[in-house]
Amino acid sequence: MKTATSQLAAHIADETTTLATCWKVTRKDGVMFGFTDFDRDLTIDGLVYEARTGYTRSAIHTISDLSVDNLDIESALDSEALAAPDLRAGTWDNAEVLIFLVNWNALSQGKIVMKRGTIGQVELKDTIFKAELRGLTQALSQQIGELYTPDCRADLGDTRCKIDLAALIVASTVTAAEDRYGFTDIARTEADDYWTGGLVTWISGANTGRKMEVRSFAAGAFELFLPMPSEIAVGDGYSVQPGCDKAFTTCCSKYNNAVNFRGEPHVPGTDAVLSYPDGK
What we know:
This protein is mainly beta. The protein is 9% helix and 33% strand. It folds into two domains: 6-141, Pnp Oxidase, Chain A (Roll), CATH 2.30.110; 165-260, Thrombin, subunit H. The strands form two sheets. A nine-stranded mixed sheet has the order 3-4-2-1-7-8-9-6-5. Strands 10-16-13-14-15-12-11 form a seven-stranded antiparallel sheet, with no helix packed on it.
């Protein structure tokens, strides 16, 4: 049920209204932004809500069966706060969003909260972005607890794995750049696939502070899972940590850490569970 002040409710009941939709976004780093579909900026509770051109959203609806409510927001990249590299880098992923209505002609009448949620999938096409807003029930679809699995449930270097990850991190520079997907470092002479599944963190260059997982590694060449937001250039500094495919054999052969393996590699699989005597 939506609530509103008596003044705002009376205004909505009038034949003509002066309503504007606003959305307040709070990123995971705590930075807040405000946007509105009105034709000029609005200041509400000390936050400036920037007027956006071409701002559209899908219909707002709430489902009573606890399934996830989704809402799409689409607009042009016409604000300095919304930069394509930041969207590609995931800076806005899982940001909290509050959508509400106000009377732009009398902001003192308060607001009606229409929807709360978090930003999910973001799509970019030229100068247009489309963001998926997931409702609060999205949290209920997350797995809580652990399941028996042949793969390790720990992450490399965490308190359960106990591997000293800092000792395995290597810092170096790019010696050849193919594109935003990959680069080469002739100083990396480790065996093929040693860095596969690892994490690259850029410490200088246009992508400073950005991170990306490694899809494959061979003969000093890195291929990333997704393109970096900005171009990779020769001389860019980076650090890389090895990855782990969470298999028992990897834990034993690569890290000699079987004692801390957090999985059940010998649990029978589906084929064994569904098998039956064949009389032989």
